[in-house]
Specification:
Helices cover 45% and strands 10% of the residues. By secondary structure, it is α/β, with parallel strands linked by helices. The protein has two domains: 115 residues; 144 residues, Response regulator (Rossmann fold, 3-Layer(aba) Sandwich). Strands 2-1-3-6-7 form a five-stranded parallel sheet, sandwiched between helices. The longest helix has 35 residues.
């Protein structure tokens, strides 16, 4: 009976890394190249040495960490970890190979492969950066420009004041806790109800906090900051308007987002932002 040939290992999918992991991978591969440049060929004895073996293991570990095992990329750069000279056949009387010259050739080849690996990680990092910087703006549906998502903290009076004003303008106000859970997590509920033309975020002093050793100051609730960040990414900064009530710190991470003090002409200011976002505004209702 014919024997079955051993099947080749299945090639694994590409390893997906975060921006921080990609940068660490680039740094470590550059260090491996520096280690190769610093290697002393005079340590070789019969084609190898403990130092060379340690360097091979270090390269293997770095490649496995950032390219995985048996992925297309891992197989492409795998030869970089083979630094010592492999004697295929030896016959008595043959001259001893020039291990230094042969190992130096392997080291130069390994440096070239690691350089290619660095370029691959840099390309992935550039692609990832472009996707993070590009605004993930959803096209607003016709229903979206009649709906407004209202993000709020614990101040119910402020929430009701703004909600009633928006309803007076003929808009449908989406308040998260009023929506059915349907077994969803908080973030899933936000995503499910995010088909809106604009998010209005109420910055109210519901919590307190400070830097270590600093003075305690009023702060916005963490859920409000989470939803503020979500809608900046989902709708774009021009579709997010923050209303500040009372003395509360504006997070520096959200610089560039329009915010208005809830005093004086805040209704007019909010109506302008709504109109700019594509809503039909009846100014008689704003002033009435």
């Amino acid at each position: 009976m014919a024997r079955k040939s051993a099947s080749s290992p299945v090639v694994q999918p590409k390893v997906h890394l975060t921006a921080d992991q990609l940068q660490k991978g680039i740094d470590r591969l550059e260090q491996r190249i520096a280690d190769l440049n610093a290697f002393d060929l005079n340590t070789l004895e019969s084609g190898t040495s403990p130092e060379l073996q340690a360097l091979e293991r270090s390269i293997e570990d770095t490649l496995e960490r950032y390219f995985g095992v048996n992925t297309t990329a891992a197989n492409r750069y795998k030869a970089a970890q083979d630094l010592h000279y492999h004697q295929m056949v030896w016959v008595s009387g043959m001259p001893e190979p020039n291990y230094k010259a042969l190992t130096k050739t392997n080291i130069e080849a390994a440096k070239a492969l690691l350089g290619q690996a660095i370029l691959a990680l840099k390309a992935d990092l550039e692609d990832l950066g472009s996707s993070l910087l590009a605004p993930a703006v959803k096209a607003s549906s016709s229903a979206g420009v009649s709906r407004v998502f209202l993000v709020h903290g614990h101040d119910e009076a402020v929430r009701e004041t703004v909600a009633r004003f928006l309803e007076k303008l003929g808009l449908q106000v989406i308040i998260l806790h009023e929506q059915a859970n349907s077994g969803r997590t908080i973030i899933e509920k936000i995503e499910h109800n995010s088909d809106v033309g604009m998010a209005v975020v109420l910055l109210t002093p519901d919590d307190v906090g400070c830097k270590a050793g600093g003075q305690v100051e009023p702060r916005v609730r963490q859920n409000v900051l989470l939803e503020l960040g979500y809608f900046i990414g989902a709708l774009g900064r021009d579709k997010v308007c923050a209303l500040r009530s009372g003395k509360v710190e504006i997070p520096t991470d959200f610089a560039g987002v329009v915010w208005t003090e809830m005093s004086g002409e805040w209704k007019t200011a909010l109506a302008r932002e709504l109109k700019q976002a594509g809503y039909a505004i009846d100014w008689n209702k704003v002033m009435g």
